[in-house]
Fold these 4 entries.
Entry 1:
Amino acid sequence: MELTDRQKKVLQTVVDLYIRTAEPVGSKAIAGMPGINYSSATIRNELAELTSMGLLEQPHTSAGRIPSPAGYRLYVDELMQGYKLSVDETKDLKNAMELKMQEFDKVLDKVAKLVSQATDLPAYTVAAHRGSATVKRFEILMAEAGSFILVVMTTGDVVKNKLIKLPLNVTETDLKLLSAVLNASMTGLTPEEFTAELMDRVTRNAGAAASLVPVIVDFTTEVLRSQQDAEVALRGQVRLLHQPEYQDVEKAHEVLSSLDEETISNLPAVMGGEKTQIIVGPENVAQQLRDTSVVMTKFDIGEGMQGLIGVVGPTRMDYAKVTARLSYFAENLSRMFAKPEHGPKQLPQGQEDSTQEA
């Protein structure tokens, strides 16, 4: 739909005021805003027109207007002004990250807590592989009579091994042949591509070690599928109760009971599409979240992994400010996970290199 410049200005002002006050916006409030040079009668006419277009809603006959989901969507796509973090905000976020980002294995949980605190909204983090993981290399090593160690290295540079005990009389040469067959036939494939036809061919070519093939395939499939699962951390759900929209206990319970890791992992385009995405109200797949909005942005983890941080809140949330804060976190997380440039190895003071020429 095509809006006039005046209609765009009125709609933008309604959304900005409603975000700030959580109260329906009337013509008098709009007329009192800087940069608005229209009469109250003109503003009332534009409010009525925007309502007929489905961009605004009127909760009560005598009340002002509030944005509809379509109004929020147009605002986010075309009218939202960029938000610049203040020096104090940047300093606070930087200090929080420096103080709390020390244990790599707990980064997802820590980031979710930090973002929730910074936005006063429920926040989540997701980590997942870009695309499906596949095997880069197989190794099969003789351990002892009847025991073998299977080593599987994946595209994410994850290495998994399994001790296999079977009553087989195979030699080290047999295991080398099996390794060669596996590396020639099963690398670069997803679990879905491990077809019965492929397994028959691998088994026929595996020689005396053919009976190891089913065990190897089962373990490899388990390893690859475990890497396809996204890790999700969700924190700060109770912060929704701080918002006026969720003072109604029944409404708050409905949203909080459905806001979990599974719901987050099923959000549309969680790891695809644009770097920053905004899902407004009814665009959410979960019925219980259709009165909420989601803002999410991606960051690079490295090693074939991608991360995402997001917040869930009322459709009235300050999209510009939330987007700016998420972008700050994402940029710093990408830098934190980036591999450092390795220069010449520096030895601790007082030590000498023990390698010498023969």
Note: Confidence is low (pLDDT under 50) at residues 99-105, 341-358.
Entry 2:
Amino acid sequence: MYHHMKKISVLLFLIVSLGVLSACGNNDNANNTNSTSSDGEVYKLKMANQVDEQNFQNQGYVKFKEILEEKSDGRFEVEIYNGGTLVSSDEETVDALNSGTLELATVSAYGTANTTGVDGLKLFDFPMFFKDRDELYQIADNELGDQLREQVAENSNVTALGFVDMGFYGILNSKKDARSPEDFKGLKIRSSTADLHLETLEAMGANPTPMAYPEIFTGLQQGTIDGVTTSTALIYGDRFYEVAEHMTLTNHVFLPHLMLVNNDFYNGLPEDLKEIFDESAQEYIEHARNLTIEAEEEAIQGMKDAGIEVIELTDEEREAFVKAVEPVIEKHIDTVGKDVYEQALEQLGK
């Protein structure tokens, strides 16, 4: 009897042991499955802008989508919302990025400044401050630009990956050829809500009229506004010249955008994908800058071909605008920060 009970005990032990080993094996398989699933996770992100699908800015977004999805072998999926379908202003865009409604977008320096409190970014809106885009890049891509991007991350739930060049501002109007500040006197010119943009137009004699970007075409068509100031490439890309025929290449301010990404999304990426994301962002920024240069050239020639009077200022005519806007810069040095202003002057050798 004793030997019989012993055999049963041994048999039960073996059965239990096999059960435990089997359970462990199942757990290992489950862990391996989870690990594989985690490694293969697809990260989806939404991008948004306020321009037409064919606009060079949106085409830059499309290129970023291609770069990112290809480099990651499909582990990133990008959805693009254009034409103001998801956001209709820079401020709305930054709010959406902060909350995570959007993962990625490019936003004007002034829009970023207004929503994050990094007033140093308003330096880029100083009228007639940068004589060419090389000077813009000299600030944006070096120490001062890095400092400003770091402040954005400190003040918000977004990371600024770099600066995208959206081109020089020009002024399109439906009333007359304009070669001097006096020629703009009394004209209702659509502007952003940025203080510097409003005051610059006032200094030029115009009547600045803020309006949401998607409403500009209709505003020009219906005579609610007499003109618009934004980058020359955007004026052409969004076909505003179809309802206004006088274009002045004032080049009075640059339109740099910051490429902004939601921190929760960005910091939650695995290291290998974060590296791919950063590489793709820098490749996009370089591509977008080249797109802008090409778009400006195409815009100027395209408007001329369409019969638009495109006025390129002489040095003497430009100097009249420089003098007209000097008080605007003086007024806002303290807003931007005297240290930021002086650092910029030093870097530019002015």
Note: The chain is about 55% helix and 20% strand.
Entry 3:
Amino acid sequence: MICFFIGLLCAAALILFGVMLYDSNRFVTVEYRIRCRGLKRKYRFVMLSDLHNKCYGKHNERLFAAICAQKPESVLIAGDMLTSRLPERFGPALELTERLAERFPVYYANGNHEYRMKTDEECYGTGYVRYHDELVKKGVVFLENDSVCLSEAGIRLYGAEIGKEYYQKMKQGRMTVSYLESLIGRPEKGAYNILIAHNPDYFPVYAGWGADLVLSGHVHGGIMRLPVLGGVISPSLRLFPKYDGGCFREGESTMILGRGLGSHTVPIRIFNPGELIVVSLEPE
């Protein structure tokens, strides 16, 4: 009987290992259609997050081809395309984003990894400056607590870069609407306001601020996903996070939370492939 259970555990471990290898090296395309008040016309975009320098084929050809096949009007990046580590390595993130900028308008809001490299040059040197400047040369628009108007569609696009205190392990920082306003001002009246905010934990604050649509990442789908329970653990080491991936509502606000495309530190994804997010906005 003991041998039977040992054999069963070994078989289960092998299956999980196989699933991990499979899911860690593939992505799925997930599309959302949202009817929007105040939108002037249909608008279609692709959202990327949490690539963490992952490569899907040589030069990320599989991912690049999948993005192009969607024929988006723009590419919106919700942070963590690279990983903050030494020695620095941001080649895959830089190469893919540069290629995309040759085909589409690209709007980039930083995640905690870009923010860490940007604000701690004593540790990371000038890696972020070089990465940022190379992408700006290619036409990438960084939204570092800034916004841009997509006037033909009636969209105001914001990028929020929150402080490191809102990415602490084991606990959640206390964010207020006034803090968010101090970073990006107030939402534009009469526009459809899209907020790119890497950390989804503060969705109620983003909604209270006035975001019509929030785009987030960071949680990687919870690393491993279980039926009913969803994602198992968040980057802040909280079990079964409320916001793990998918579409959420808070009052009049919608959040689309991508499960990301890569991983870092422990490269594990189980029942949780990477996600390429496609969003089609339609006037209500």
Note: The chain is about 30% helix and 25% strand.
Entry 4:
Amino acid sequence: MSTQYVLGIDHGSGSCKTTCLDSNGNIISEASVSYPSYYKHARWVEQKPEEWIDAAIKGIREVIKEFSPKQKKEIKGISFTAPAHVGVLLGKDMNVLRDVIMWNDQRSGKEATKLKKEYGSLIYKQTNHYPTPTWTLPHLYWLKKHEPNVLKQVHKVLFEKDYVRYRFSGELGTDLIEAEGSMLFDIYEGKWSQELLDLVGLDASIFPSIYEATAQAGSLTKEMADILGLPSGIPIIMGTTDTAAEVYGSGATEEGDAVVKLATAGNFSLLSKERHTNQNLTSYSFPTNGLKYQNSGTNFAASSYRWFTETFFSDWLENPDIKNVYMELDREVEKIKVGSEGLLFQPYLNGERSPHWDPYLRASFFGMTARHNRFHFARSVLEGVGYSLKDASSELPGTPSKSVKILGGGGKSEVWSEILANILDVTIEVPKHKDAAFGACLIAATAVGWYSNLTEAVKVNQIVTTHIEPNIETVQLYKSLFSIYKDLHTQTKALSYRLNELEE
């Protein structure tokens, strides 16, 4: 039997990752294509859907560029994933009506507050969450107030990965986890909630039907096949949200399994049998074993480090002799004492999510002295993100049953992984494959019959490459510093509000 292939395509917050997995469990090729976000006003984050499509096309072309015509015929499935909450508004001709409001956009703070005050009990009763600027419902409520003409033109609403998949297959649809992430779906009745949609003046008929993550959602259209240089008719698989795909793809499939992610945002996810009702967490269904996953997170994780590097190490970025700025920074950060000699960083560069859910918080460095240099600041950024993840994870129901797997670009840094192991006081496991595109590959592989179920697919294809153990003394120091970090939040929150009021 000839070797077969599947493609997994993940649209992240800043780039599209495409991965090709073969039927022997080997990753054949990968590609990453970036695209911008647009920050038109304070707290706004928007993207252009057509740039997602362009990135996916470029990524697929890149991963199959060495394929022979025979190999191209052996591509048996393509699956997609992307962040939740990102609604794409389509007109009658299925054109995009406006740039999309991203999940980390914070403009709808006032709208979310109003929704919670006036309709909070209704929303929570049906969705198990209260509104914050992360969700699709507050985005649409903001549009109702500020761009009502756009809402009047809406014919269909898709979500990010579903819009991309629609452009490849021509088929509408979504999965359960994506629907739960909209705050427009009654999770107990299992249907779009007309009561919630009435709040924004939309009808349930404009939202897609719900399918399993492994369901086939059409086939590659002839038009897109011609653009890609592939045969038409390749099965297009539904897929799921990026966090669910990457948590699953890391090897987490059982109750108590936990994953921490250091990407644009930071997440701490814990699998459980029951859906918990802590309003400071998000809670969703999970692709395997009828489980749920509880998720807490910080808005700016690896993006905090990227912001810091671009702002304070531009000389390194422009130096042709420095091939990898982040590896060089790691070497210098390792020389700085644990705790950055009393320098703390709050990573609230665009408000904060769990457990504070506050779009008005401001970032800060605290504890500066004359002995601190920019490498102290670099380490304090890594530690500050760690404190924020610890802050978020403190709300989780129980503790991980074993170690915690680490994902995301930040997880490639050994020094950052060590910092997290000590701040969180857990053993960190580094899996061989660390992203949502790999999880999407496994979903596609299961859908086309390579494996009997999703659990088998990940157990066959995922391994742990490294274990990082916490150090008892370092753990105790970080506990003391985290206590100060918590008090710093309490004592600066009102100052953040005053700055925002002054700016507005």
Note: The chain has a mean pLDDT of 95.
